[in-house]
């Protein structure tokens, strides 16, 4: 069965302040994420407990061809509390249980893509991206003195569809991360690099507003920024008139591209104690098949996007 996955991309920006005992970033920058997925661990963010676990390299098998040493699959999970009513003699009492919400994650360490399962029980797409960024930040920073940024891929056509369908544009914002991914728009890349040479910024925030709603959105230079953002090097937001008066905000985080990919989880997990030895072997074989299938589908998706 296929599931919907968000398409994200990670960027790595060196900290201006040098740190002791850090390594030089690998020649292929995307490999710098590996320390963040090497070991299972838990972390807290905004009062919630999260876990990064089970990451391993996806290995091709017969019939499922993709490059070795490039794709890693694992999970990020968020702990939520679930209340259930349990019956005892003469009463029903509320009992609180741990309820971990897991998301499958596939990382391409060459093109710096992240494919993560979309699940509203965990949070909205922006929350998913931010939790992944938080999960990976400290290990990467400690190892390579680089900060990691994670943004969704969002086609520029979605922005233009919103703008062209509205008569009032009140506010426009672009967040541009300092250049990291090689296939971003060259004009925007050159502009951001020039400013980085002067100011040393991690990112640039551009805010334009018009209280009357008469903000102009010219194709140039806006299209350059949008192409830069579309590759995962930033985000955009725009405020227009609402459907029934007032104002409405739209953002790239609400319009992240998705793709349908095969699930590696079983629909009905069976307790190991109830399985025969032969069934366990079959289960392992099935999991390997599913993982190879997932790797092949992710590779095909990246090639289709022209990023192979």
| Helix percentage range | 25-40%
Averaging pLDDT over every residue, what do you get?
Answer: 86
Low-confidence stretches: 267-281
Percent in strands: 35-45%
Order of helices and strands: EHEEEEEHEHEHEHEEEH
Find the count of extended strands (DSSP E, 2+ residues). Answer: 12
Measured distance between first and last alpha carbons: 25 Å
What best-fitting shape do the alpha-carbon axes yield?
globular
Summarize the topology:
Layout lengths: L1 E13 L19 H4 L3 E5 L2 E10 L13 E18 L2 E18 L4 E5 L7 H20 L1 E7 L3 H9 L4 E9 L8 H14 L3 E7 L9 H12 L3 E8 L5 E5 L6 E5 L14 H28 L4
Summary tags:
308 residues, alpha+beta, eight-stranded antiparallel β-sheet, four-stranded antiparallel β-sheet, 36% strand
Please tell me about this protein's structure.
- By secondary structure, the protein is an alpha+beta fold.
- It has two domains: 2-152, no CATH class; 156-254, no CATH class.
- The chain is built from six helices and twelve strands.
- The protein has helices at 34-37, 125-144, 156-164, 186-199, 219-230, 277-304; strands spanning 2-14, 41-45, 48-57, 71-88, 91-108, 113-117, 146-152, 169-177, 203-209, 234-241, 247-251, 258-262.
- The strands form two sheets. Strands 1, 2, 3, 4, 5, 6, 7 and 12 form an eight-stranded antiparallel beta sheet that branches. It has a four-stranded antiparallel beta sheet with strand order 9-8-10-11, covered by helices on one side.
- Helix 4 (186-199) packs across helix 5.
- It starts with a strand and ends with a helix.
- Mean pLDDT is 86; it is low at 267-281.
């Amino acid at each position: 069965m296929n599931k919907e996955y968000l398409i994200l991309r990670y960027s790595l920006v060196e900290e201006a302040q040098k740190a002791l005992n850090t390594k030089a970033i690998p020649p292929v920058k995307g490999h710098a994420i590996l320390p963040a997925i090497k070991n299972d661990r838990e972390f807290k963010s905004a009062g919630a407990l999260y876990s990064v676990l089970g990451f391993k390299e996806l290995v091709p098998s017969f019939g499922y061809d993709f490059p070795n040493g490039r794709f890693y699959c694992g999970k990020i999970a968020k702990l939520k509390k679930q209340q259930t009513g349990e019956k005892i003699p003469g009463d029903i009492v509320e009992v609180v249980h741990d309820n971990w919400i897991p998301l499958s994650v596939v990382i391409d360490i060459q093109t710096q893509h992240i494919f993560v399962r979309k699940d509203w029980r965990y949070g909205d797409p922006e929350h998913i991206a931010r939790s992944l960024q938080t999960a990976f930040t400290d290990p990467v920073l400690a190892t390579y003195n680089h900060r990691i940024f994670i943004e969704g891929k969002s086609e520029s056509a979605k922005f233009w569809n919103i703008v062209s369908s509205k008569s009032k544009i009140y506010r426009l914002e672009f967040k541009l991360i300092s250049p990291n991914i090689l296939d971003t728009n060259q004009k925007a890349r050159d502009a951001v690099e020039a400013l980085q040479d002067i100011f040393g910024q991690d990112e640039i925030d551009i805010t334009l507003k018009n209280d009357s709603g008469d903000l102009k959105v010219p194709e140039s230079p806006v299209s350059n920024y949008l192409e830069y953002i579309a590759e995962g090097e930033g985000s955009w937001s725009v405020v227009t008139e609402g459907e029934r008066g007032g104002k409405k905000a739209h953002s790239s985080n609400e319009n992240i591209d998705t793709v349908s990919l095969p699930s590696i989880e079983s629909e009905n997990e069976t307790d190991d104690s109830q399985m025969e030895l032969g069934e366990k072997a079959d289960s392992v074989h099935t999991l390997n098949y599913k993982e190879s299938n997932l790797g092949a589908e992710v590779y095909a998706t990246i090639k289709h996007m022209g990023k192979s």
